[in-house]
Amino acid sequence: MVLVVGSGAGGATLARELAIRGIDVTVIERGPCVKDSDAFLCYDEAPDVDILRTSCAGGSTLVAAGNAVRVLENTLKDYGVDITEDLHAIEAELRVRELPDTHTGRGTALIMDAAESLGLGVKKMPKFIDPDKCRPCGKCSFGCPRAAKWSARRFLDEAVEHGAVLIEETEAKNIIVRNGSVSGLRTSRGDFHDETVVLAAGAIETPRILMRAGIDAGNGLFMDTFVTVGGILEGVGFCDEVQMNALIELDGVILSPHFSTLLFPEDDRRNVLGIMVKIADERSGRVEADRIVKHHTVRDISLLSGGAAIAGSILSRAGVGAGTLRSTRPRGAHPGGTASLGEVVDENLETSIEGLFVADASVLPAAPGAPPILTIMALARRLARHIVSVL
């Protein structure tokens, strides 16, 4: 049997791949099972650093924007990890594609046209969203009310159909170790015993479990820091569009149409047009037992401010009143790096404790600066093959 802690992009993919191959799998999930449309109720509190993440079956994939971009593919090869074929397979299965023009709203079109008029390269964002099911409503980051967007819940359901066991609302506490090898997991519902444990609890909780097992983890935190820049354009109705449906790639920065309620909480949301400015931040943070520490470096601040200035120019060209422009505070979207390849895990994602693996963004050696869901899934598929080969 294999114990998998967490059921997001990594955990659910791994559980499905193992279950399909006839391996007994038990998935330990801290959060509850909820409907896709209720995923917004499962956002975790962020008392130290504002990092967007959820605790529920399917993890943060339920509140992701459905963006499907390849990240860190070549970087991982430098560590002896080739995920190219796995990425091909995932893209085919999830039917990754650009949405048709019928799903491009007025606000997104204005942003795209304005960016092109400024000489910026713009393309549509590839998505794992079924356009036949999608009725643009702006709720991608709250949980899709029509389940038009792929989420890890689908893989988790398939894993259960093939015999996997899901134990929800259960917190992983400590790794049980005997003679340098893993022999089980201590949880809030008692002990589970097995010689293979995979941590996929995310880049905040996974290193904490590792630290309690005596492994030096938690350093090198990145979080793909972002701000949303926006202003007022009367009646644009951008809040009801498919979010992040276009992509502008700059050096170390991406820009994408994005609505945030934090910009103008006092104004009619239908009058707000915004752009997300996201950077591949430096690994300048750390996860500790009871807090998260993250510093923004000079480089990070320079990238954010430069990207925000460009976003402001695009919005002004799109018709937003220059005197209305403002920005949110910096937040984090994709934490990772806290159990990195070459530092905490080897090329097979195994730790110094035999039989203890990691299959989430913790293992990423650098900030992707874009959603890493496909990369995490590809790493999990690769790990599944390795685990099958050694069982």
From TrEMBL:
<keyword id="KW-0285">Flavoprotein</keyword>
<comment type="similarity">
    <text>Belongs to the GMC oxidoreductase family.</text>
</comment>
<dbReference type="InterPro" id="IPR017896">
    <property type="entry name" value="4Fe4S_Fe-S-bd"/>
</dbReference>
<dbReference type="Pfam" id="PF01494">
    <property type="entry name" value="FAD_binding_3"/>
</dbReference>
<dbReference type="InterPro" id="IPR000172">
    <property type="entry name" value="GMC_OxRdtase_N"/>
</dbReference>
<dbReference type="InterPro" id="IPR002938">
    <property type="entry name" value="FAD-bd"/>
</dbReference>
<feature type="domain" description="4Fe-4S ferredoxin-type">
    <location>
        <begin position="125"/>
        <end position="153"/>
    </location>
</feature>
<dbReference type="InterPro" id="IPR036188">
    <property type="entry name" value="FAD/NAD-bd_sf"/>
</dbReference>
<keyword id="KW-0560">Oxidoreductase</keyword>
<dbReference type="InterPro" id="IPR007867">
    <property type="entry name" value="GMC_OxRtase_C"/>
</dbReference>
<keyword id="KW-0274">FAD</keyword>
<dbReference type="Pfam" id="PF00732">
    <property type="entry name" value="GMC_oxred_N"/>
</dbReference>
<protein>
    <submittedName>
        <fullName>Conserved protein</fullName>
    </submittedName>
</protein>
<dbReference type="Pfam" id="PF05199">
    <property type="entry name" value="GMC_oxred_C"/>
</dbReference>
<dbReference type="GO" id="GO:0071949">
    <property type="term" value="F:FAD binding"/>
</dbReference>
<dbReference type="GO" id="GO:0016614">
    <property type="term" value="F:oxidoreductase activity, acting on CH-OH group of donors"/>
</dbReference>
